[in-house]
Design goal:
Shape: globular
CATH topology: MetI-like fold
Strand order of the largest sheet: 1-4
Radius of gyration: 26 Å
CATH architecture: Orthogonal Bundle
Distance between the termini: 24 Å
CATH class: Mainly Alpha
CATH superfamily: MetI-like
Strand content: 5-15%
Structural class: mainly alpha
Number of helices: 10
Number of domains: 1
Largest sheet: 2 strands, antiparallel
Amino acid sequence: MKSPLHQIAKIWLSRLVWLLVVIPLLVALLHLQTGIRHERMDPFTLADGRVITEAWRSVWDPTRALAQLKEFPGELIQGKVLYKSSPHDRGSSFLPMLKQGWFYSFELYAVSVGVGALLGVLIGVLVALRGRLLRGASITVSVLGLSMPDFFVVMSLQFLSSWFWRHYDLKPFLVLADPNILKGWVVPVIGMTLFPIGYMARLTASAMDDVMQEEYIRTARSKGLRESAVVLGHALRNAIPRMLAGLPTLLNVTLSSLVVVERFTVWPGISKWFVPMRPSPGFEDQLFGATPAVASVAVMLLILWFVLFDGLAHTIRIIYSPKQPEVVRA
């Protein structure tokens, strides 16, 4: 059995190597489209006799793409990556905008993980109490949380809000998210908390079932302790190492949902810069919005975020439960 320190060092080293490989590859892929240029075609005649005088064809120039790729590291280091809101905009520094977008993304992520994990643990404990009604309701919630796609939940809530607005002139929550209004949090938070709730409920219930079979639980019951005292005072405390083993999966899957939920709810986070815009014919040098450089910086931040949280989650798991393997599926 390797020491915890050796396991932690191995985890961080592997993620550092993964970073050094993945980031340059993704940046290069995002800059491929910078080599696209459009050429006007000569007039030609179709089979039905029509003459086409205005036509363009797309040509990919690897030299152009490579030149743009070589300029990117220098622009990033000097803070010269610009964001243009229109073709006529001179552009402003993108890094302050990215910082604000990341703050909104992290805020949504932290709230979703915290609320989802707490509700999931609560549901798992209710399952362990073995009340028939509570157990049935808890299992139903956990199954729905694991099986419902986040985009389907978001679209269903948006449809429901529109339906209430048309028929009853009510807006229980906003269709498009707004971090400055409480109603603007409802759709993205529900869409992102379903998996944490379902995952932690299954994980907690499974860990509690194992602990409840131990001898000291039977001893506590024989002393006349109430079932709630046995579950909360003895079983839950000893089930925590098993629950921490699922922390990496909880954080990583929730982070992957963040991209989908932000795009569907128009949350002003970093996901809006992930898809670079394609140049139009005759305007290859007038890109604006999410240019390949802007998308590259946003994707790099998301990858760093993922690696950091994944490494921290594994480190916590190893420190508190070194003999407990990671739980991928509860």
